[in-house]
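USER: Write out one fold?

ASSISTANT:
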Amino acid sequence: MRNLQVGVLTPQYLTAALDLDRRCLGGLWHLDGYQREIDSPNSDLLVLQRLEASDTRHSPSLLAIGCSWAILEEAHITLLAVELDYQRQGLGQALLCCLLKAAHDRGLERATLEVRVSNQAAIALYEKFGFQTAGRRKRYYAETGEDALVLWRGGLHHPHFPATLANWQQAASDRLGRSGWQFNGK
């Protein structure tokens, strides 16, 4: 089993975050953007890292990154990216759980995000977590002119949400386990 842990992005991993961003998101954010998120009390900038010491020279230890902003009563998920060679193993699911837990812990009521209309894998993931289409932003992605769907998920502050979150965390842990990862989601 390979060990995986969630944590906040720290300055020592900024270069790795930029590299992951460049490979997965085409260079969405730059160094100053990541530093701003690290410094902001309204941001949850989380990473998934591999813990084992073996073979780290050949593969990255920073495997996924996600960020959300606390804006009034809303968590706006600004990015969620998983290293290309590690996609379809449950890392995105685990990181989304962590972002929603952070939003719940802040007392936020709902979560929103934008996603490319062509990104069916991401849309399916978000729908698994109860996100629904709230709108469409025409030509949102300037480099391609592609539209974005605006997705919304409410109820983060309801009394039943911790049980729902625990079920999602267990499902994410189980999915990761089937892919050879050990993760407790804390």
Q: What stands out?
A: The CA atoms of residues 155 and 161 lie 7 Å apart. The mean pLDDT is 91.
